[in-house]
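= Protein in question =
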Amino acid sequence: MKIVIAPDSFKGCLNAFSVAQAMSRGVQQIYPSCEIDLIPMADGGEGTVEAILSAVPGEKVKVQVTDPLGRPIEAIYGLIEGGSTAIIEMAAASGLTLLSEAEKNPRLTSTYGTGLIIKDALERGVKKILLGIGGSATNDGGAGLAAALGVRLLDKHGKELSPGGAALRDLAEIDMSKINPRLSEVKIEVACDVQNPLCGPMGASAVYGPQKGANSEDIRYLDKALKNFGEQLSSIAGINLLELPGGGAAGGLGAGSVGFLGAQLRPGSEIVLEVANAEAKIKTADLVLTGEGRTDFQTAYGKVPVGVAALAKNHNVPVLVISGSVDGSPDALSSHGICTCFSVSEGPVTLEEAFVKAEQQLERAVWRILAVWKLGNESMLKANRT
């Protein structure tokens, strides 16, 4: 018996590795001699570096950069494949968790720090960069990132713009002549799990601006600023970034990464599964367990359980989803190769209680579910013999 365990984190509660370990303990109670393969997952947000480094050999690199408001901080990124591939989370330098509630201001916050991480990786000679863009505090279209890599963003007087999304309203010229030359030698893939365009009612400012501190007036201003930015970068990049699916991800960094860096946008879970060589492990499994903090209608749109199930479906391996909570009918995910979904909760419980007992409840949930799974399999074998 071989079981692959490939869960996402339970956001705000357990990281992906802790989730995988708790699931493993539950499996061992039912199948003590089972071969278990752990593949902690992520979708490009916080925890991506940790998840990948727990799945493949690599190292952490510390680098001095700046936070969303330009203050000095230390950030960490990963190097794998003998140092040829960098795993970078924009949240490490430009993330929302780096700011207090009062400090959130997408008019001013910048991706400059993320650009400094990329610059460090380029100086170390990497040939590939995997960039996770979840959890951003910014709405600058990646302008700050580009500035850190040598791009000059100028107003009509030829003066460099100040950091932040609001300044893009005054953008009159993009000078790419001094962009870091190493970028042309490096393949960049961006983990992007949304399809939002750069601007408009479903764009970066309108949809994600409020959680970054934007009020209704800010949203209107920032949307116009991104439109100006998008039009000018599109003319340089030779692609209509205003219509690019995913261009509005991470405050427009989806569009900026394509326009400035020539990056490719891909589902985050797909990237992590590929790096972890997950398909080779899944195709020889008898069962796959996955999960996330909350399984709901959004799960079908590129979340980790669906990404894992897609690989398993190719090899007819059954998949069970065990999540912190499940909202909606599990049948909605059956077309993706998921047998069914379970919640770890054993009954009514407050959110605070659920967090405190999360590992214990998850372990018990896996134990209960696999006890029934084992009984069902044994009954089928017995019926087939008769």
User: Anything to note?
Assistant: The longest strand covers residues 58-66. The CA atoms of residues 68 and 99 lie 8 Å apart. DSSP finds 13 helices and 15 strands in the chain.
